[in-house]
Amino acid sequence: MVITKSRLVLGATAVTLSTIAVISLGIHSRGQALFKASPKELVDEVWQTIDRQYVDGTFNQLDWPAVRKEYLSKSYSNPQEAYKSIREMLKKLQDPYTRFMDPEEFKNMQVDTSGELIGIGITISQDEKTKQLVVIAPIEDTPAFKAGVLAKDIILKIDGKDTKGMDSNQAVSLIRGQAGTQVSLTIGRDGQTKEFNIKRARIAIHAVKFSQKQTPAGNLGYIRLNQFSANAGQEMQTAIKNLETKRVAGYILDLRGNPGGLLFSSVDIARMWIDKGKIVSTVERQGEGEKEEANGRALTNKPLVVLVDKGSASASEILSGALQDNKRATLVGTQTFGKGLVQSVRPLEDGSGLAVTIAHYYTPSGRDINHKGIEPDVKVDLTKAQIEELWLHGREKLATLADPQFAKAVEVIGKQITAKATPTAEK
What we know:
Oligomer: single chain
Radius of gyration: 22 Å
Strand content: 25-35%
Number of strands: 21
Number of helices: 11
Number of domains: 2
CATH class of the largest domain: Alpha Beta
Structural class: alpha+beta
Largest sheet: 8 strands, antiparallel
């Protein structure tokens, strides 16, 4: 398996609303199909793809050949009937990250990874144990973020419709809509139920925001990375180069609430911070793996602290895991989301698409963080009141000394800057 920019590599699977699985490995471009498959041929194409690529050769203890026989014995009079059967077939795998997208959903996914979307701006996933729809994170400055939706919120209802038994794609179809229209979400949070009426909008996602900050630790560069979109690498490069001209003494990289995105983007960005060492490795069904390493072209070697929380998922975990394992950065905050699977996203003959879990990824030290997440080096828990104050009511306090996690990052990096500036005593 080769990870290149020509393949859509997403860091952990989720669905950005309106649309998308945010973490995968590989849109394999096949050009314009010469013909559209019949509904039954489409069902078989999906089955064959799973049969060849799925990460678990036992198909999660499922008799996969029997599934093929069951669904090819049916008659299909239109694509919609085939789509329904495909979703039923994939549901038997009990893997919420292997999923089918109809042509409209697939088209939207491709648009979303370019850094634009129409929707409310949340990334969701189906919990593998409870099967509930869970918010990985709201994307900053989107309608959902401004309305007060938080990471780990449970979506109980969409416009009054119970989400029990609903998969991510079905939820996307209900939440997505025309810009300017409203959608109602019933959210479960800490045992309480909350109602949100959110207006959909066209969203231009700016992956990177940066600024120079004067702190007790000195002149620091602050970079907030919101999503690993196709343009995130270029924006990160611009941010680092700009801050280097300002002679910052160190950096704070904020990955809090970053739900992930393209895998190649996380690798590119890791190379901007790590000069030598492994970044990530992936292992497929046959045990074959691919390793990505630094290329000796880091843009800075100055002290680095990374902020993470439970909304830091997938590609965020690839980056933070690489920085932690290479001892390039100190992680501050709380345990990350815990998504260590890789999906391959490919087009099908009729314009629809399929995301297939094809590999596990591991940090440079060999850690499998799936379901576990990454523990920060310095843990700074926030109370429920602090989270709501910072992310809902007092956003002007984010990345200031009134933000407890940022304040700790400043303290940590201050010690590192001092240690680096102190000459080592001769022995």
